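Milestone M4 deliverable, item 7.
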Amino acid sequence: MSTRADKSRTRLDPSESQSAGDGQVVSAWSKPPGKSVRAPRKKAAAGGELAVASLSAKIKFGREVCGNLDTAEAREWIVTNGVGGFASGTIAGCATRRYHGLLIAALQPPVGRTLLVSGLDEIVRYSGAEYSLATHQWAGQVVDPKGLLNIESFRLDGMTPVWTYALADALLEKRVWMRHGENTTYVEYTMVRGSGSVDLDLKALVNYRDFHGSTHAGDWRMKIEAVENGVQVTAFDGARPFYLKCLGAACEPRHEWYRNCFLPVEKERGLDDQEDQLYAALFRTKLKVGATVTFVATTEAEVRLDGAGARAECTEREAKLLESWLAENAKTAAESPNWLSQLVLAADQFIVKRSLLHYPDGRSIIAGYHWFGDWGRDTMIALPGLTLATGRADVARQILLAFAEYVDGGMLPNNFPDADGKPQYNSVDAALWFFEAVRQYFAVTKDGRTLLQLFPTLGEIIDAYVKGTRYNIHADPVDGLLCAGEPGVQVTWMDARVGNLVVTPRIGKPVEVNALWINALETMAEFARLLARPGEGYEKLSAKAQKNFQKFWNEERGCCFDVIDVPAGGNDAALRPNQILAVSLPVSPLTEEQQKSVVDVCAQHLLTSYGLRSLAPSEAGYRGHYLGGPRDRDEAYHQGTVWGWLLGPFVLAHLRVYGDRAEAMRFLEPLGISVHMYGLGTLGEIFEGDPPFTPHGAIAQAWTVGEVLRAMREIQNYREL
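Output delivered:
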């Protein structure tokens, strides 16, 4: 079996000092919290603005995509604000989901997401002709107007979507972004070219509903009041007021319902596919060549209306994100594929503020857009890639400390529901992934002070798992392996359920849970040595669990059982990808021959261009397509559907076994270049198990982006080992 070779490592003592390079010596215990012990790096030579500009042409489409409704509505953009809110839509400009809109505000950050501003119905009059920029779909699948036919090109500048409309000899450019830390969206229009001025009308469409819902207005009447530069909208008594403003434009309050808007993706998903939007205000302005006007949608009574300044603020922030990544990856950035820097910006979209009593600057990670909140398991899996691989160790520290506050009964919250935000504890592995996140954080930062803060919580988790906690989670005193699960409860990451039916119950001793358990024990033993604390118990329990992990080996198939000691008796031999973690994690309880066999079996039966199948096609119950209503989709979710995040562990397992750095990078390339499809500039959640592996689910998923970033960094640093 393969384990760490540095168990005799010197203890970390408060009086110790470590070299930080460049002649600087700092103490690992006296340094400021959350800062790396490395010496400060120089600013990226190219400069932040140039770094962002270098991304602008990488994701770009012309009329061949933009002018075709099927292709244009299949590609979605998203911008976020760092507190849980977002704006999202399609290249075509039409909403296809209930989650599309210009302002989905997080009214109880980072949750309480509420659709406030649905979109803009834009009309341009130029040289005696009238042009629509908007595209709307109506009940009966009627499309009118068809503004997508006026789109000459679409691109991303960083993560900012930019449309160029060709109106005779005029070019009009539109871009959308959000202000970080505020529920504020900016929509900017610039007349780039023309032989005269244009008249621009913006009809603001609003709503006020939970972002999972849909509106059928009936006789609902909102209160719309004129304010300076626009209107204030109050949906009902007690609702949060929000504002529509545009500096330099005339504004007329309106109140007219657009009824029976059609949402085709919701129809595909078997959900309510129609809703109503309120036309609340008309903004009118004139643009000359070179001039710009900016529409602002916000929950802030006092807001920055200066579009140029707000846009510069956004660009500068993206520049700093790239500079942090370049500084942390100076040796390898030059040889990175061009989609990698795009994912650095995408990574930031998931990081949100979650204020706590003791940590007002606490951070968390949104598991995915559009519909996920912050989930404990997803956060800990995604954290190393989203933060450590991008040079943001300070953010990693804030997340770890914030989640440590929520540990209860040795368990980390599985998720924070959008409705009331109270944490739910129904995950056996979230707390185990917490150990792995802390381990990677300490490996990068050598931050002894934070380790000292977290150590008691880590000990509490181990103690609870040994003694037993919720859902029959406990270490078997006979073999040291971890048991988990009760009927009717899903506690592993394969957590789909249909009503009271758990699709993949996996009750017993799941393979990846025990691989994580062994690594958590090894990590705890190592931390105990570093902090001069008793750790013999962790070492003994780890040794017992590693020895008995051989129970997972299925000699007949040359791979691991997915679950052993199931309640009905025997072992579950279904070929699933969970066993890959027994190879990819730092401590592997498998022999080198077994590791190679696991990698080969997964490659032959589970590997696709975009990730690993959740079940091999040869297995009973395999579902190769992810279609239909909620029940059909949930039944397929972990029964063959491909998960992008699993490609990270597979690639690192393959690298461990074969040592082929170039081959490992080739495995990641197809998923990396998928930033050009589905969720633009980011990576989605799942794909169908059968070719051509059509994307589905969330358009942006934290652990997919995070694991690709982490794997790329590990691969690029492999030659230094």
